[in-house]
Design a protein that fits this description.
- The chain contains 27 helices and 20 strands.
- By secondary structure, it is α+β, with helices and mostly antiparallel strands.
- Strands 1, 2, 3, 4, 5 and 6 form a 6-stranded mixed beta sheet that branches. Strands 8-7-11-9-10 form a 5-stranded mixed beta sheet.
């Protein structure tokens, strides 16, 4: 554990003007507040924040970040409040500590919700200050280093899985490869102990047999480059077990078949020397076609810059080589943290493009599952490069289509996209892009994203934006139906309904906008009676069984059942009075009433079948319809009008397919009996707005 003076000396070594007094106060503060608390290892708890602060000094970060690292657990694990932090260390430190604290607290939530909320908080906190992420990554790295002290294996597995799924990829996306590699190695050791042990043993055997082969190859490379007049540093290493495991899994090969276990790094003084060194290596040893990547001219999204190649060394040995300058190497290993050290407090530099995309995904995602799906799409996947006609470069995951490209350029462009030219040729929107493609997106007035696009887009941003747009359109359409139905409800109220009555009704129902009410009516989230009471309180008090809204109340009786035996109308076929019906009795359950031709009856072949009939006064049941309407203005209102004219109460409306120029809905509607249901189907088929209507 770092002592107080050692921590201060580390900071002063790269920042002579650092506030020594503030650092000393923060060190003493965390020791006092954590007091006698212990970690799973038995060490004093305050050793953890001090070690995290030490990791921050390795990255040469500013005093505020070091203090945040020292205090990052005080709000969560002691009686200290954010207000206390602000009083002692200022607003900026309090804000940073609060950001890290929010990320930590949610780790007690259920797994999916916790992971989703973790990402949400991460992204929003990073959008304000990237240092929140830097402290959290260092916090997680130190926790992983001490993971083996935790006795509960399930907790170790959960922490390791979370690290592998979220924290290591995030470290990679901000270019902190040193953190990423160590996190992956430690998590892999916990998640796949047998595989880790096997690969580690094989590597140990390889080391024993090669007799210093890595050092010998590095020396050969250095000699060849020195003879060409280049001053370089060459280092070699074995890939760590997780990297080898990944290659074995991806290629479906054994350890012996992984040929590029060794990797070498050539570090030069200048960018020009990088290309010169690459030329020497390619002239001296055969390079493998398709394995060369130039990340200097086209850096990765996280700012990573280097030349990558694979060479055939003696005895057909394949080795990977990376060539970069000293400055590139430092920034590649520590990424955004190194960038922050160069340009402190320059917030715009921290707002890298992929982060803006992730913030947009947070806004567009509907629930925890969607957020996890979309952000993992944005965090993972290899990249390709594509250009706009004006030469702007965009990086996308492999497999991206013209639609993904449109959303990458701008969300509004994706929403208005109707076609694409790829390298000057009109191509389908689902066309997958290749490296170097020039993509021109064609916009259309009044264009809208299609639900079918979700079948081929691959970026999280595109999927989130399409789903959001489709949901909004569906809401508008349901609200349009609700508006038509609302007019029929309002006509039954014994008063003239104006804007004031609607405003007061919204207050009584706890709604904000008239559109909210229309949507609730259209989606059957509120009953006719509740709407009428909200419009004119007390107006439904004296209504009897003949009142308008009660015409569809159910009175169902079934003949053929033993008295006292319960029954339910099956959800699969939605029988209504007038249908030929049969009962299905399973042990210990109520009798299910099905139509005689229901396909689900086959699943109950081994159960008791009952010959049933409707009671003489049976009326009122829910019939299910599939209605396809033309996708043009006014068609929804026409369909709603058909239901209103036939006095049909819609209990559920779900959009099942959007395939321009048609939209298909699944509709549950309350009807009196089979003739009533048949009439509504006929009326729908006769409407110019409806392309097809059928009972399900």
């Amino acid at each position: 554990m770092l002592r107080q003076y050692e921590l201060v000396e580390r900071v002063k070594a790269y920042d002579p003007d650092a506030d020594e007094a503030a650092l000393n106060r923060a060190y003493v503060y965390t020791v006092q507040k954590h007091g006698s608390q212990k970690r799973a290892s038995g060490d004093p708890y305050f050793s953890h924040p001090i070690e995290v602060a030490g990791l921050m000094t390795d990255l040469q970060l500013d005093v505020q970040t070091i203090i945040t690292a020292l205090l990052h657990d005080t709000v969560e694990d002691t009686l200290v409040t954010v207000e206390d932090i602000e009083e002692h260390f200022g607003k900026d430190v309090a804000r940073l500590v609060d950001g890290v604290t929010k990320l930590s607290k949610i780790e007690a939530m259920p797994e999916n919700e916790r992971a989703a909320e973790n990402l949400r908080k991460f992204l929003l906190a990073m959008s304000e200050d990237i240092r929140v992420l830097l402290v959290k990554l260092a916090d997680r790295l130190h926790n992983m280093r001490t993971l083996h002290f935790i006795k509960n294996p399930e907790k170790r597995q959960r922490i390791a899985r979370e690290t592998m799924d979220i924290y290591a990829p995030l470290a990679e996306r901000v270019g902190m490869y040193e953190y990423m590699r160590e996190m992956q190695a430690l998590a892999f050791k916990e998640l796949e102990p047998e595989a880790y042990k096997t690969i580690a043993n094989r590597l140990e055997e390889l080391r024993g047999r090669d007799g210093g082969q890595v050092d010998a190859i590095a020396l050969k490379f250095k000699q060849a480059l020195a003879e060409a007049g280049l001053k370089v540093e060459v280092t070699g290493r074995e890939k760590h077990p997780f990297s080898i495991w990944n290659k074995m899994s991806e290629r479906h090969v054994s350890f012996e078949q992984v040929t590029d276990i060794m990797a070498f790094r050539v570090i030069t003084d200048t960018e020009a020397d990088c290309y010169a060194a690459l030329g020497v290596l390619h002239r001296t040893w055969q390079f493998l076609p398709g394995r060369f990547k130039d990340y200097i001219s086209t850096p990765k999204t996280n700012g990573y810059r280097s030349l990558h190649t694979s060479l055939m060394y003696e005895n057909s040995m394949r080795v990977e080589v990376q060539v970069r300058t000293h400055e590139m190497h430092h920034r590649n290993e520590f990424g955004l943290a190194a960038h922050w050290a160069y340009k402190q407090h320059d917030k715009a530099d921290g707002q890298v493009g992929w982060l803006r995309d992730l913030i947009e995904i947070v806004d567009a995602s509907h629930d925890a599952e969607e957020l996890l799906e979309h952000t993992r799409m944005a965090i993972y996947q290899d990249r390709i490069f594509a250009f706009t006609p004006k030469g702007a470069l965009f990086q996308l995951p492999k497999g991206s289509t013209a639609v993904d490209f449109a959303f990458a350029v701008h969300t509004d462009l994706g929403l208005a996209c109707v076609g694409a030219k790829i390298n000057g040729r009109h191509m389908p929107l689902r066309t997958q892009l290749s490296n170097g493609d020039v993509v021109e997106i064609i916009k259309g007035k009044g264009a809208e994203p299609q639900l079918s696009w979700l079948g081929f887009v691959v970026t999280g941003k595109a999927r989130a934006s399409i789903r959001r747009a489709v949901r909004l359109k569906e809401r508008e359409e349901v609200a349009a139906i609700g508006s038509k139905l609302f007019d029929t409800i309002a006509a039954r109220v014994p008063a003239r309904i104006g804007k004031k009555a609607i405003r007061l009704a919204l207050e009584r129902l706890g709604m904000d906008e008239p559109d909210d009410l229309m949507y609730a009516v259209g989606a059957s989230k509120i009953t006719d009676r509740e709407v009428m009471e909200a419009l004119v309180p007390g107006c439904t008090a004296n209504f009897d069984e003949d009142d308008e809204w009660s015409k569809h109340e159910r009175e169902i009786s079934i003949r053929g059942l033993t008295p006292g035996v319960g029954f339910e109308l099956a959800e699969c076929c939605h029988p209504v009075p007038g249908d030929r019906i049969v009962g299905l009795r399973r042990m210990g359950e109520r009798v299910e009433v099905h139509t005689i031709d229901c396909l689900e009856l086959a699943s109950g072949i081994d159960n008791e079948w009952l010959d049933l009939n409707w009671g003489s006064r049976s009326h009122g049941a829910v019939g299910r319809l599939s209605v396809t309407i033309y996708d043009r203005p006014g068609t929804l209102a026409e369909m709603a009008g058909v239901f209103a004219q036939n006095k049909i109460n819609v209990t559920s409306l779900t959009q099942t397919q959007l395939d321009h120029p048609f939209t298909t809905y699944e509709i549950d509607a309350e009807v009196n009996d089979l003739p009533h249901l048949t009439r509504i189907v006929s009326a729908l088929r006769a409407s110019d707005a409806v392309a097809q209507a059928d009972r399900i």
